[in-house]
Amino acid sequence: MRLLTVENADNYMIPKEILKKVKRIEITTRGLVNDVFSGEYHSVFKGRGMEFSQVREYQIGDDIRTIDWNVTARQGHPYVKVFEEERELTVMLLVDVSSSSDFGTFRQMKGEIAAEICALLAFSAIKNNDKVGLIIFSDGVEKFVAPKKGKSHVLRVIREILYHQPQGSQTNIGEALEFLSRVVRRRAVIFLVSDFISSGYEKALQIANKRHDIVSVTITDPREVELPNVGFIELEDAETGETFLVDTSSLDIRHEFAATTSTAIGEREKLFRSLNVDFIDIRTDQSYIEPLMRFFRMRAKRFR
Fold it and tell me: Residue 131's Cα: distance from chain center in Å?
């Protein structure tokens, strides 16, 4: 699978309908950022990263946890490490474009909602003078946009998400996280946007989360959680193409489907909690504004 970077994507002609979508998303999210999210983003993320600056002699009142024991041993009296607040953050958007993202039984597809959420986060980041980067993936990494600042760069990121034509149909979150660990060496805030129809990514998530601050954003359609009672329907797995006939009038089948999806969701959330990975649940039949606000409020309380 060929990795397409932003440099060799510049020659692609962007259709007018995509540019219109970009403009609509920009207008929508700009108002939300200015009125709601900018302050919340700043209070949660700005200054959370600290980098080592120097060592100095211990002074009364210093936190003993900052003592540099190696320097202390060499000098014969206590020295402490001095840290400075990082001047800027890097925000990376990891966006799942597998076939299941092109699904939605309400107003929007999951992929369209993902683009709007990414735009909201990206505009919040640049308003805070942070860098924004992008990794688009399916069953492999398909595009990488290096982190940069500025409105024009964010508009490019949104265009890439909307205009990208996926090469793969399935989802490999583990490979995306491994790629992230290779290309982003310094600590960053990572928003992993996917429906998490994937498996085998637990170890990669654990490793990546040790270096980065990872936030999972799960986008789910109600029909992926429970079946309606509409008789016989033919279902197709968007990622494998497999089709099968289901009698939705059967209460047992509907209960079994709901129980299976509920178990999967519970296991995923259990994994996130065990790794201290924050998660945001988004549904296609509901506004994404309130779940995002709950997340920001929760993070703000934690860092007070």
Answer: 15
